[in-house]
Inverse folding.
């Protein structure tokens, strides 16, 4: 085999879990089993009832993982749809407030929202939230992510929820990145609604959920598709049973694997320690964070050039701010943290549940070459 062929066949290193986690084995098995179900969960015959049973079992298992009422769980296509569905319903007649580092799924759903500042470490400025809530007028809907997708920074959701309650505001939490990576329940967060996405915790792409707390369970959702009245009229269209069954299995497996998080944090810390010695700046490192995520800025090196060099070396990372066109956008998250000088030079390394220590070593070798400005070799 020529060197080029050998290089092309060496395994890639996937460090982009915050874009999508690798499929978990239990999720694959559950999705494949559901693919073989011919019935539609809306049909009354035995095949339909069997499909319905699978759907309701998935609903109970997912709700159970997050201490939610299955009746308040609405299946969707993913995090984006869950955010949009929640905001359209809960935002009716309310002032909209959102954190400055929200994902585009939320930013696009509330373009007119007032922006809540974050502190330099990336966490929500609670004084800023309190001032915004104290403005006289209609009550607010606050949209706040649990964990940031670019930096892994965790917002003080419980404290924000207490402030919201004091001011009669509702709280929607985008927990797409924290689900399956941290133990939390709907009650712990104090949220009125929570958005989840199956592929972010090792399920198939194409399924997500909106969890509604008791106070808003009766709210009328305004789905983009009403169709046949599925999900009790809250989201029309035949649900993707294989993706949902896989989502439920992934949730359970991810919850069972939470004990691995300290090991991921140790690998993340090893990356940051070695990268800092090469001149990199770990962004948000002073805040409470997800164990699997680091945002590394290499001053003077464009994010896009870093991504391409690492990609050619067989390593998948992200800028964290990639848009759907595949282009690298400037990071509004780092801008909001006052790190504008670094916003064009950061990459996000997000460790998947499958990661191995030796993969981190190979990443660090490639990163050292990148930082030194020498051509990055494909990882052996
Ligand atoms: N919210 C956050 C914080 C995310 O990171 C993402 C995806 O990156 C989404 C929402 C959108 O989720 P989905 O891809 O399932 O629509």
């Amino acid at each position: 085999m020529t060197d080029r062929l050998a290089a092309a066949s060496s395994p890639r290193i996937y460090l982009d879990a915050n874009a999508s986690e690798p499929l978990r084995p239990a999720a694959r098995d559950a999705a494949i089993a559901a693919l073989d179900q011919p019935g539609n969960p809306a049909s009354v015959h035995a095949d339909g009832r069997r499909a319905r049973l699978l759907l309701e079992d998935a609903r109970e298992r997912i709700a159970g993982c997050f201490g939610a009422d299955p009746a308040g769980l609405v299946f969707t296509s993913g995090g984006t749809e869950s955010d949009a569905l929640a905001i359209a319903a809960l935002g009716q007649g309310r002032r909209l407030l959102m954190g400055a580092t929200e994902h585009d799924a939320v930013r696009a759903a509330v373009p007119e929202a007032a922006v809540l500042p974050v502190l330099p470490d990336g966490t929500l400025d609670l004084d800023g939230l309190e001032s915004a809530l104290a403005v006289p007028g209609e009550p607010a809907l606050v949209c706040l992510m649990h964990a940031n997708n670019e930096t892994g920074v965790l917002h003080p959701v419980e404290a924000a929820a207490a402030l919201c309650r004091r001011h009669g505001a509702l709280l929607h939490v985008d927990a797409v990145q924290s689900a399956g990576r941290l133990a939390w329940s709907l009650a712990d967060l104090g949220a009125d609604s929570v958005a989840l996405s199956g592929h972010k915790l090792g399920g198939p792409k194409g399924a997500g959920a909106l969890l509604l707390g008791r106070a808003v369970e009766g709210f009328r959702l305004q789905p983009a598709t009403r169709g046949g009245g599925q999900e009790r009229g809250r989201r029309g269209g035949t649900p993707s049973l294989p993706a949902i069954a896989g989502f439920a299995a992934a949730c359970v497996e991810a919850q069972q694997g939470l004990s691995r998080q300290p090991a991921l944090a140790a690998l993340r810390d090893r990356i940051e320690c070695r990268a800092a010695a090469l001149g990199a700046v770990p962004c948000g490192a002073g805040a409470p964070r997800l164990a699997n995520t680091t945002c590394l800025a290499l001053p003077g090196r464009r994010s896009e050039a870093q991504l391409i060099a690492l990609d050619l070396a067989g390593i998948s990372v992200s800028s964290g701010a990639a848009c759907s066109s595949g282009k690298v956008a400037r990071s509004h998250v780092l801008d909001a943290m006052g790190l504008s000088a670094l916003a064009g030079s950061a990459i996000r390394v997000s460790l998947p549940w499958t990661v191995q220590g030796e993969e981190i070593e190979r990443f660090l070798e490639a990163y050292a070459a990148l930082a030194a400005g020498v051509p990055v070799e494909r990882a052996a």
Q: What stands out?
A: The CA atoms of residues 121 and 287 lie 6 Å apart.
